Amino acid sequence: MNTQEFFEVLETHKNKSLLFEYAPNLLVGANYHITEVKHIAVDSVDCGARTDAWNETVVQLWESPKELGKRDYMTVFKALSIFKKVGTMKSYDLNAEVKFEYSNATFHTAQLFVNDFVIQENNLIIKLAIEKTDCKAKEACGVTDKKEVVASGEVCAPGSGCC
């Protein structure tokens, strides 16, 4: 989901509570805060020596240990006011993919993408998911199916142009 689409979902449901599901049936605690909004410009070179560039909006979620046991979630309205204030200070690339950075005592720090959202009662639940790493230069590496390479025992040799 890009940043514009995310903001549109929030605008449509601003009278609801905002919850984040970081893994199936696991919610970020009600004691979360939006601690940072990053406007990231990625400038990359993949393993096939191809360059690429894109922007991302990364929102950091943090659970305050001082508010353990809190039951009321942040409202969408409050989150929107945070995002609007950030936008007055640093402009958004509204086409940039929006991601969420999160961790807790049992879940490693990860950047999660928005997989979906649902409305349950008075809650807007943003469903997050992990994006697996992948070889972006499959053609240059001769990789047609990741499992096929692992199963056949092939290994990329130095200088082969492969990952």
Any overview of this molecule?
The protein is α/β, with parallel strands linked by helices. It folds into 2 domains: 3-131, no CATH class; 134-163, no CATH class. Helices cover 21% and strands 40% of the residues. It contains 4 helices and 7 strands. The protein has helices at 3-12, 76-89, 138-141, 146-152; strands at residues 17-23, 26-27, 32-45, 51-63, 97-104, 107-120, 123-130. Helix 2 links the parallel strand 4 (51-63) and strand 5. It starts with a helix and ends in an 11-residue tail after the last helix. 15% of the residues are buried. The model is unreliable at 148-153 (pLDDT under 50).
Summarize the structure.
The protein is about 20% helix and about 40% strand.
Features:
163 residues, globular, alpha/beta, 40% strand, 7-stranded mixed sheet, 7 strands
Give the CA-CA distance, first to last residue.
Answer: 28 Å
Q: Measured on Cα atoms, how large is the radius of gyration?
A: 19 Å
Count of discrete alpha- or pi-helical segments spanning 4 or more residues = 4
- SS strand fraction: 35-45%
Counted up, domains total 2
Structural class: alpha/beta
Q: What low-confidence regions span 5 or more consecutive residues with pLDDT below 50?
A: 148-153
**Assembly form of the protein:** single chain
- Topology as a string of helices (H) and strands (E): HEEEEHEEEHH
Task: Present the secondary structure layout.
Elements: H1 3-12, E1 17-23, E2 26-27, E3 32-45, E4 51-63, H2 76-89, E5 97-104, E6 107-120, E7 123-130, H3 138-141, H4 146-152
Parallel strand pairs: 1-7, 4-5
Antiparallel strand pairs: 1-2, 3-4, 5-6, 6-7
